[in-house]
Automatic annotation (TrEMBL):
It comes from Sediminicola luteus. It comes from the Bacteria. The chain crosses the membrane at residues 386-405. One of its GO terms (molecular function) is sequence-specific DNA binding. Coiled coil: none annotated. Residues 449-552 form the HTH araC/xylS-type domain. This is HTH araC/xylS-type domain-containing protein. Keywords: DNA-binding, Membrane, Transcription, Transcription regulation, Transmembrane, Transmembrane helix.
Length: 559
């Protein structure tokens, strides 16, 4: 259980606290106390942590006070350390960090679990899970579900453990180098290994190792691997255990475990597993002396009271076999074997019953209550759903009718557009031309005649053609020309008039000649600055989309 704690210390060192005016000494004490904690220097750690706490209080730095309480909770004996876990919870009830106060409950769960109080541990983990879910704290959810899964694993409920670890994995974005991804894969590999599902364990071990970018030799030599790769030795251990039970690459298993034994010195569970596996391999190779040394190491690490170390029974069986020539030693290990088996069975049975009574059954009762409440609202919800669905169907029917009539109208317009005789003049003209003020018949006739000549030319296909160019062509000023265009050609003025000429020309030209250009090319040929402008103008002029018109041209041609 110590490994997640060490990782959390590194995590706390990264988050930004409420900054006091002078934090140099505060940060130094934090770093020094964390190093003393990691190196196991109890006396130095307690001295530094006390100074750290006092200075944090002076600066009113809540996060630093929480760190100091956390350190104390780790090294005070049970149940005295629970006071500090409760203090963290009370201190961070309204804290601005999303991982509080859920982590206080997670810490409390770990302390309970380390002392075999598994039912209170499950309650604490569940509270941590609820708070983390409410705050959308993915790492808090991972921690809490990991704690619940770990207890289920201890009780031999492998499927339930796998379910918890799978749930936690769903909250984590899998990224290379992510510690959260490593932890989720590590937990799943551990659950499948204990369940004997070696292929699945192999999959998650490989997935976890793929997230690590770390030189193995450097990790072994320096013992100072990166905090995000803190699960690397654990995954290497799991990798070796899986290969051992799959009976593959035994030499590689021995090399990996032997190299990492120094790193496992502060992790008794992995140290014990490693020596057990190395002892089993030595037995298979007929190296009884090596096997005995490894099993004796396991015996020194654990006693019959350490019922949660599942390989102790097999270790005692191996020692009984290897000590055939020493009757007294054999009897001693037989007694340990029987005592361990008795303690483990009684503990497992008692705790399993407690968990079922105090955790599983209330959980099922709560689920049943929620289902009953849901059923009470079912009729009302069904009625509401009926109205919603009916409304949606009515709206959908109306929309379909609208689209149907629009389609028929568009189709009719398209047919008319394709079958009518091409005319170069624009369709949109003033319905009732007005007499132009201050313009005699001679000038009016001249302008109209020149406009008719202009419509028969292709001058309007020039994208840069403007009113000044047209006035020069007609030989009259802009005021008179504009007035005549508005009264006799297009009430919207020169620009609309020019656009209609271009669209009329484009329709006639496209009907005569199969288009070979892109829409952008067509736009440029017909005097438009862009394909978008051409398409928009075509739709405004004809009420038919350009794409529909172009698609219909080959059909008309083939017909």
């Amino acid at each position: 259980m110590r490994l997640p704690i060490i990782i959390f210390i590194s995590f706390l060192s990264l988050v930004t606290a409420q900054q006091p005016k002078d934090t140099t000494l505060l940060h130094y004490l934090r770093s020094a106390s964390a190093n003393a904690l990691e190196n196991g220097n109890d006396s130095l750690f307690k001295q530094l942590n006390t100074e750290y706490y006092q200075l944090a209080r002076i600066h009113k730095d809540t996060l630093c006070i929480v760190r100091s309480f956390f350190h104390e909770a780790m090294y005070r004996p049970y149940p005295a350390n629970m006071i500090f876990a409760d203090s963290i919870i009370n201190l961070t009830k309204n804290f601005y960090k999303i991982d509080f106060p859920s982590y206080g409950y997670y810490l409390k769960g770990q302390l309970f679990e380390d002392n075999d109080a598994l039912v209170p541990a499950l309650d604490a983990y569940k509270t941590a899970l609820d708070l983390a879910t409410k705050k959308k704290d993915s790492l808090g959810i991972l921690d809490a579900l990991g704690g619940i899964g770990s207890i289920k694993l201890t009780l031999g409920r492998f499927k339930e453990a796998q379910e918890s670890f799978h749930r936690s994995r769903n909250y984590i974005i899998q990224k290379k180098g992510s510690s959260a991804a490593l932890r989720s894969n590590y937990n799943l590999a551990r659950a499948f290994l204990h369940a004997g599902e070696l292929d699945s364990a192999r999959y998650y071990v490989d997935l976890g190792l793929s997230h690590i970018d770390l030189d193995k030799e450097y990790a072994v030599k320096s013992k100072a691997y990166h905090k995000f790769s803190a699960f690397y030795p654990s995954l290497v251990g799991l990798d070796a255990y899986v290969k051992f039970y799959q009976k593959t690459a035994m030499d590689e298993v021995k090399d990996s475990l032997t190299k990492f034994l120094p790193i496992y010195e502060n992790e008794p569970i992995y140290l014990g597993w490693s020596h057990f596996v190395l002892g089993e391999i030595a037995l298979l190779e007929g190296k009884r002396k090596q096997a005995l040394d490894h099993f004796l190491t396991v015996d020194r690490l654990f006693g019959p009271e350490d019922w949660r170390f599942s390989k102790l029974k097999e270790t005692y069986a191996g020692l009984i076999e290897l000590k055939k020539s020493d009757n007294a030693a054999q009897l001693a290990y037989m007694e340990k074997y029987i005592r361990y088996d008795s303690i483990r069975n009684s503990k497992m049975l008692r705790i399993a019953n407690e968990v079922t009574t105090n955790y599983d059954l209330p959980h099922v009762a709560d689920l049943k209550k929620r289902i009953a409440e849901s059923n009470n609202d079912l009729t009302r919800k069904k009625r509401r759903h009926f109205y919603i669905v009916s409304s949606i169907l009515v709206v959908a029917f109306v929309i379909s009718l609208v689209f149907h009539f629009r389609y028929r109208k568009t189709k009719k317009r398209l047919e008319l557009l394709l079958n009518e005789e091409p005319v170069p003049a624009p369709i949109k003209v003033a319905s009732q031309p007005k007499k132009s003020h201050a313009l005699d018949t001679e000038h009016l006739t001249h302008i109209l005649n020149r406009l008719n000549d202009f419509e028969k030319s292709d001058l309007f296909l020039d994208p840069t053609y403007n009113m000044q160019d047209l006035c020069q062509y007609i030989g009259r000023n802009a005021n008179w020309t504009s007035k005549v265009i508005s009264d006799y050609k297009n009430p919207e003025g020169f620009r609309a008039y020019l656009k209609d000429l271009r669209i009329s020309y484009a329709i006639a030209d496209l009907k005569r000649n199969t288009p070979k250009l892109t829409i952008a090319g067509m736009a440029s040929s017909y005097g438009f600055g862009s394909a978008n402008t051409f398409s928009k103008s075509f739709k405004e002029r004809t009420q038919v989309t350009l794409s529909s018109f172009l698609a219909a041209l080959p059909e008309k041609a083939s017909a």
